[in-house]
Design a protein that fits this description.
419 residues, alpha/beta, seven-stranded parallel β-sheet, 14 helices
Amino acid sequence: MLDTMYKKTKTRQSRDNNGWNKRGPGNNSKFGRPSGKRSFGRSGGNGRAKFTGNVIDINRFISKAEIVKSEEIFEPQYSFGELKINNVLKEAIIGRGFDKPTPIQDKAIPAILAGQDVIGLANTGTGKTAAFLIPMINKILNNPREKVLIIVPIRELAIQIQEEFQALTKKTNLSAVVVVGGANIQRQIRDLQRRTNVVIGTPGRLKDLIDRKRLNLAEFNNVVLDEADRMLDMGFINDVRLFMSLVAKNRQTMLFSATFSKEVEKLVADFLTNPQKISLRTKEISKQIDQDIVRVNGGDKIEMLHDVLIKAEFEKVLVFSRTKHGADKLSRKLSEKGFKADSIHGDKPHNKRQRVLKMFKQSSITVLVATDVAARGLDIPNVSHVINFDLPATYDDYIHRIGRTGRADKLGTALTFVG
């Protein structure tokens, strides 16, 4: 049955009034025909429509991927070899196989090197971590008294930034301390007592260390607010404002965000000085993601997921569950069916989360079941498919979920199970 449902249908595409792709006549999906009984509705212009009542338009989950045309390929203004930065850092960049900067790096690195405050608006997966790390590392190498505070919304992103930092500073004596919840705070305190130039932390743990008088933010004259919109969405606005009031008054500040809401705009107005705004946001959903639905129609969802996952092209799959319990249960069921599967969510111990993520990145496990904690900011290479086993809470969440595939120059596929 599923083999028949999975055949690609040749249907012309049209656009609805909201500008989202939908399929022409009959709204055919390669996984079956939508009944039309539920509609997704309009989002009021901000893309945050709630999935409530009878307002789910599943056409928003259907769109054919497009291969990037050669004329769309970005040509940067310089190569990394031409940058006026420390030679040790330059060698580390080139040693990692990086030759030309991405668009956000091309614009942000010169501005940060020049000492400007910067607002970087870019989609995830665009290389923004290196966009601020490269100039900050160069700044520290030129003056070891420089200290950098990097504030992020989730611990996985903090560790990801630390890993990139370590890769860029292998041949130096620079170190970065990660301070996040769920990890041993006494070890973090000991790490902070050693001479370190960079602290990467989540708001809750940073506040805890400040309250314990183990972290003096007045020493930090460089601040990076990464995923600023996400931090505000998670309710960290007062914490962020506290941190910004405690850091050195004479500082360089960089803010990176996928969106520029009124709250983010107010934060910029209050804490950045004559910033250079770099806006490189592209279409909300990558053209390189093939989106479709799996029509459940009262069937066994786990059996249907099994029949999808056994197909050869499903090499590295991120499956989204609505709840933590659901993620654990689903990964256990998939393991019982012979898949190399595990789960990740907020209640899982910090070290276990890191171990599972590492195994998924290295393809030791090929199916990772996650709650939305994994939907944003994480760089997981070569995810072939994203599957929304449970519907996301908002359309923004859908965008961030499926953004884990179709990254760089690769095509990806996103499937959404609908009732």
